[in-house]
Amino acid sequence: MSYWKILDARYLDRPVDWSDFFGRNAPLTVEIGFGRGDHVVHLGKTQPDHNIVAIEVSQPSLRKASSKVKNNFLTNVRIVDGSGPLFLWTNVAASQLDALHVNFPDPWHKEGHHHRRLINPEFLHLAATRMKVGAKLFIATDHPNYQPVVTRCLEETPYFTSRLSTTYTTVDPNRFTTKYEQKALREGRFPFYYKFERNAQPAPNIFTIPEELPMPHAVVQLPITFDEMQKKFVPFEAAGNGINVNFKEGFVAANFPTLLVETYVRQDPQDQRLGLVVQEREPNEYIIKMHEIGFPRVTDGVHFAVRQLTDWLMSLHPDATISHHNLLRIN
Ligand SMILES: C[S@@+](CC[C@H](N)C(=O)[O-])C[C@H]1O[C@@H](n2cnc3c(N)ncnc32)[C@H](O)[C@@H]1O
Fold this sequence. Notes:
Bound molecules: S-adenosylmethionine
CATH topology of the largest domain: Rossmann fold
Number of helices: 9
């Protein structure tokens, strides 16, 4: 394996055997959302005896960090393309992690987007299940509205204890400062640094590694035209089993009888935004499936969403039938 290839989290084992993955047994450090990647390079250089996994969703950041890691000949760092919580959930077994770094997570300042924030009680619970007792948690934020939320989450979590005498510090002279951080300091914003440690309080593993599921699809025989079908679509929501789905908007393709439905699947520990499609394959025969946009992970929540959309299609005509499907039954 080339050390510096960007790895796609979707194709990593569930869970990864980290000693085998790195070819050596060493403490495991993860950094989520590394941006320009300078902090990852710093970790790689200063902790040669650690196995370091750095995960990002942004393609330019992934490319930048991967070439920096390569230019510094760091063989103890792997760059992974994916979302941090999904990665911890699906690829990391319980009590594997020795350190977790989250520097300046996106604040999502609009109120309607707060649920997208990385640091919340569910994320801390997930992290607690994956971390060893004594493992170190480092978080930094400079955002005036997000900082009190991070502070409250850390003060309220039973699973982590501050290694400082306070919840946070605003002065950390020994810290490696990222470009983002330097800019914040220049602009007069004060970063808050949190240095916590996984304590001995057992964290029930409510986020067991989800099984790998097939790409969900259903085929419906529906005696109405595509045009009639798409005109009946109105945004709706569905909920069940701790999963909440919002079918937000429908778009009709220009040249194909295809309705693309913008869909939000809210499910702890990771929400996903994806496109579902309802496509007329033959007259009066529709397939409901995932669109590849955004490369979502196939979770039971995604199966639930396809089932709800299928049920909506079925509700459009009393003679509608499902001729085939591979959907999980989730109530
Ligand atoms: C404000 S930037 C901070 C970047 C860097 N840590 C620094 O201090 O300069 C937040 C970064 O988190 C990444 N990010 C957002 N959500 C993420 C997720 N779910 N998993 C991994 N990375 C994520 C973004 O792409 C972005 O690069």
